[in-house]
Amino acid sequence: MVLPLVNLCAKEVVSDHSSSPGWLGCVPRELYRPLLEAAFSNCRPLAVGELVQRWPERTLRAGGRRQGQSPPNRLCVQALLLAVVRGLSDKRCALQVLDLCGLQCEEGGVGDPMGGWSLTVALSTMVVQARAAAQRSLGREGERERKRVLAMERERDVVKRERGGGLEEGEGGGLLVESVRKEKEETSGCLREDQQVKGVRRRMEMERRKESAAVAGLAGGKVGEGEADSKVDSEVVVCVRADLFVNARSWERVRAALGTTGPLKLQCRYVRVEELSVSSIGSLLDLLPRHVLLGVDIRYSCLGVAGLALLLPQLSMFPMLSSLRLHYCNLDIRRDMAGQEGAMKEMSQGLGKLSQLRRLSLTALRLPGHLRMLLSSFPQPLEVLELPYLSLTPADLSYLSCSPHASSLQQLDLSENRLDELALPSVRRLFSQASSCLMQLSLSGCGLTDGLLAAMLPSLSCCRGLKSLSLALNPLSLAGLLDLVRMAVRMPSLRQLLYPNPLEDYQPGLPPMPSSAQLLDWPLDELVEVHEATSLQLDRVVMESGRSDLILTCDLLNYNKDLVEQ
Q1: Strands 295-299 and 264-274
Q2: What is the rounded CA–CA span in Å between residue 280 and residue 278?
Q3: Do residues 7 and 30 touch, judged by C-beta distance below 8 A?
Q4: CA quadruple 15, 20, 24, 26: dihedral positive or negative?
Q5: What is the DSSP secondary structure assignment for residue 283, as one 8-state letter?
Q6: pLDDT band with cut points at 50, 70 and 90 for residue 207
Q7: Which of 156, 127, 131 shows the shortest CA–CA distance to 242?
Q8: Cβ neighbours for 285, distance < 8 A, ≥ 6 positions apart
Q9: In terms of pLDDT, which residue wins out, 210 or 138?
Q10: What is the C-alpha separation between 208 and 9, in angstroms, rounded?
Q11: What is the pTM of this model?
Q12: GO cellular-component terms in the record (predicted)?
């Protein structure tokens, strides 16, 4: 990729930190963005800090990455956060909104990036420390003003003693006392006003908000809760938007940051929760701003059906919530428990109140036979439905194929739900209903044999918009795999195919009908010739079709279905 000239020049400018005093004072605001991107990409934390501290625009978006762009280095992210705090008292900084959504990545990746948990802790610490620094500064200003007033009072007493009692009763003494009193009142008024603000930016922000509040008052604005929110927001200088990762170790720090009112206000777009109790998750939801949250991801928490039913009314208070993901949350209802059916109905009713929900992911919740109860209450059809390890029954698949969701699904994950001859008609009908919109499909670990796949391929080939197809860990022979690839090359929109290793590639001893767990654990044949022969046959099919844009892979660990969207 050829970089634009401005990017090449920005890279050279930030590479030498000793020259920064020469260009920081005269660089135009239009060049701040390419300079900051160059500082991030070349790991120049000092340049990042100096640019952010003087940021000339109201909004700074540092999250999200383009294709091929590496995530920012941990040191650069830390420098950015420190510069935001320093910029609170810098009159050159115009920053009001810091958007870090999408900045986090996996811990320990290439280039030492900052993971979601580390970023959440760093942001929470920054918010709390900024509040403490503001309070200390106000305390110091108040102490200086108090000392000045005391000094003025002592000076007044000295003047009175020097002039004697005559002037106190005369006209001159009265004027002196009156002037001293007025000066004291003015000084006290200035003290009260100055204690509410800190620095030039805080005063300007306060004046702007007071003018807006006055205009709203003349127009007949709301009172009560709105006034309370305005009072809290009057202290905010910068709103920080980010995706948060909260677990038992970071919960207390995140709670302190979300409950703090100060110059920095933490807002959350997507929140991921792990290993928290129902009460803690409820407390977290109460602290999150209502009109910002778009998605909730709860993992490894023992919610139970009753616990989830308690959380759903809280989730319905977020009008923009479009994604709900529940992973390994212990909703197993195969065991008979008192009141479980009533809790299921409450959960269904709660899901129905999530009017903007478009993505639902239920992983390993073990809810056989209850898919109709879960999905029928939604007022709008879902676009993304992920149901791996859900123990779906033929009745569940029959409902899904006839439901309003079928014709709107763009992404569907049925991995690790065993498909047999009884489920085959429903699956084929589901593919037919979703043929015009389905873009990503995962059927990994579904027990698909050569015969089942052959019966399914005609319906699957009708999905003309399909871009990503995953069929790993299915017991296919080499002949069945070749049939799959021949069908894939005839689908012009398909860009990625995750195929299973054929049974011939495994070492001897594999059961006739192996499960996905057995296929995952069983060793492959150590002979290189075996794997090369399989790859050659697959590549020959692709080459004969003339397709150069189709990626075939059997690497389950490194497969990324979202690459087709980048």
Answers
A1: parallel
A2: 6
A3: no
A4: negative
A5: H
A6: low
A7: 127
A8: 296, 311, 314, 315, 317, 318
A9: 138
A10: 38
A11: 0.80
A12: cytoplasm
Residue with tokens 């989730």: 315
Q: Quickly list H helices, 55-99.
A: 74-87
Q: What is the mean pLDDT of residues 265-287?
A: 95
CA pair distance 465, 494, nearest whole angstrom: 7
Provide the token pair at 111.
Answer: 């280039």
- For residue 231, what pLDDT is reported? 44
pLDDT digits (tens, 9 = 90+) for 431-444: 999 999 999 999 99
Pairing of β 323-327 and β 295-299? parallel
Give the integer Cα–Cα distance in Å for 280 and 348. Answer: 22
3-state secondary structure of 170: coil
Q: Is 234 exposed, middle or buried (0-12, 13-18, 19+ CB in 10 A)?
A: middle
Work out the burial of residue 28: count CB atoms within 10 Å of its CB; fewer than 13 is exposed, 13-18 middle, 19 or more buried. exposed
- Show the tokens assigned to 119: 């970023």
Phi, psi of 149 (to 5 degrees): -65, -45
Q: Tens digits of per-residue pLDDT, 85-112?
A: 999 888 889 999 999 998 876 554 445 6
User: How many beta carbons lie within 10 A of that of residue 460, not counting itself?
Assistant: 23
Q: How far apart are CA 154 and CA 161, in angstroms?
A: 11
Q: Using CA atoms, how far apart are residues 304 and 346, in angstroms rounded to an integer?
A: 12
Q: How many CA atoms lie within 13 A of 385 on its CB side?
A: 25
d(CA 328, CA 366): 9
- The C-alpha atoms of residue 388 and residue 410 are separated, in whole angstroms, by 16
Amino acid letter at 510?
L
> CA 35 to CA 148: how far, in whole Å?
45
- pLDDT confidence band for 345 (50 / 70 / 90): confident
